[in-house]
Specification:
271 residues, alpha/beta, 20% strand, globular
């Protein structure tokens, strides 16, 4: 079956490793047909003072040039130039223009911050252990995620790792089903896609993003789904893509939706 990865990073962000060319070569060797580079769009110094979470502004042109060189070197691989952009809600302090985003053929929307707190940063996970924290954080995370997914003015094409709040395996005492339904409704309202992000299996939560019940809610709402490994190392560029397809099939999906360079979508049937 045709394999695709619509989410990966490289050494241009402070927590990635490997050159763009390394990922493209590994993807081609693994038999992928589509690879989307989706480097973390620059954050301000107040959110990323050390340049660890995102790509510095002055490195974005070099990133784009590296992707173009990879395209020339691997003509059989459909390489998409994209970025992953954090939704910051009321804490947004960047003035991002249409011109800033014009070069990017795919924009992933992500929520990594809850009221300016990087809730998935291992160095800051202690806040999860405060009394009542999981109950409070999951509700606020869902509010922000739904706001991002339902806001048509946002540039996002795909909403990434929808239940990232489970990364450290802290869960609320209440039933998550109502939150899942709200997330599915929010995403369906704008026609955006979601992804099965295979990296979740390698965190404390030990399961892909999203959870099976959340993925089933997206499917019932008619939300298209793609698959990405969220690789930050070339060795992981094709990791668990087929397992991601299997998760989709179990949730009731009949095809993988694949974004294209032109902004269209195509489908891969799930046998």
């Amino acid at each position: 079956m045709e394999l695709v990865n619509t989410h990966c990073h490289s050494r241009y962000c402070g927590h990635g490793a490997g050159e763009v060319e390394d990922y493209a070569a590994a993807a081609e060797a693994a038999g992928l047909t589509t690879l989307a580079f989706t480097e973390h769009f620059p954050l301000s110094a107040s959110f990323d003072p050390d340049g660890y979470l995102s790509v510095p502004w002055d490195q974005m042109a070099a990133y784009r040039e590296a992707v173009e060189r990879a395209r020339e070197a691997h003509p059989s691989l459909d390489i998409i130039l994209g970025c992953e952009m954090d939704y910051l809600g009321a804490d947004e302090d960047r003035a991002i223009t249409a011109a800033d985003l014009a070069p990017y053929e795919l924009v992933l929307g992500s929520v990594h911050f809850v009221d300016a707190w990087a809730f998935d940063d291992p160095a800051q996970r202690g806040a999860w252990e405060e009394p009542g924290a999981p109950e409070r954080i999951w509700r606020r995370y869902t509010e922000l995620w739904c706001a991002a997914a339902a806001d048509a003015s946002q540039p996002f094409h795909v909403m990434s790792h929808p239940d990232l709040a489970k990364k450290f395996a802290y869960y609320p005492s209440y039933d998550l089903a109502p939150l899942y339904e709200a997330m599915a409704e929010a995403c369906a309202s704008t026609g955006r896609m979601i992804e099965v992000n295979t990296s979740g299996s390698y965190y404390a939560c030990a399961e892909m993003f999203p959870a099976p019940a959340l993925l089933a809610a997206f499917r019932r709402a008619g939300v298209p789904c793609t698959v990405g490994s969220d690789a930050h190392d070339p060795a992981n560029v094709a990791r668990d893509i087929e397992r991601g397809y299997e998760l989709m099939a179990r949730a009731g999906y009949r095809c993988v939706t694949v974004p294209t360079r032109s902004g269209d979508r195509r489908e891969i049937p799930l046998a």
